[in-house]
Design a protein that fits this description.
- α2 packs parallel to α3.
- The protein has a 5-stranded parallel β-sheet with strand order 2-1-3-4-5. A 5-stranded antiparallel β-sheet has the order 10-9-8-12-11, with no helix packed on it.
- The longest helix is centred in the middle third of the chain and has 14 residues.
- β1, α1 and β2 form a beta-alpha-beta unit.
- It is an alpha/beta fold.
Amino acid sequence: MSQLFNALIVDDEPGARRLMRSLLEAHNDQVRVIGEADSGEEAVTQIGLLKPDLVFLDIQMSGMTGFDVLEQLVVQPYVIFTTAFEQYAMRAFDTLSVDYLLKPIREERLAQSMEKLRLFGRVKESIDVNALQQLIKKLQPITPAVALTIRTGDKITLVRYEEIAYLEAQDKYVCIHQMDGQKYLSDLSLNRLMEMLPANFFRIQKSYIINLDKIREMYRHLNGRYLFSMNDKTNTRLTSGRTYTEVIRQRFNL
């Protein structure tokens, strides 16, 4: 039988807290949500009162950050970070927390966190907050990439982010559609490319990632889905997946 963890959700965005609660319903045999906090100050109070086993902790909050919260805790729960930090930087957190979840949070990624939590068992190690902050300082100055690299034999093509309208999964490849209608094929998966792309790229269904800066219009569609009209040469129209409806509403404040 799985260990049941009493959990607190900490995030200053109501939509993010609702989404986390919704996603955790599929893991109610392992996690029971006992409270929420919408600020760092409230998080410190609630953790002191409720003494949760686990905290889903947003890092970037107005006022106190997630790091500030950790510094003030007397009790030490397990921590799963929820963050919009670039994923390459967040990999450094692996040894300093149970896990991290990159926003917008996906069902399959949360399931991985739950499995990692299960492996942690009852052994609890304190988080070295100072070490965590030092890692972020070291990693963040890295100059971010400005393009995807496409290799064809000895040739390397740089596909600049600002020229990409959307990416489309096609069998074993991903087709990168540029604003001018030109296309490139990548042998990397859509999941892997999503990790590499900057924050203005957003997944609207399992087969499509769009550049938010290249949306002309969006419309409500059937069954709670959304239709995105892109500003590219061919005026592409893309429909979102049903399972992505909540993260789309959260991202666009709908």
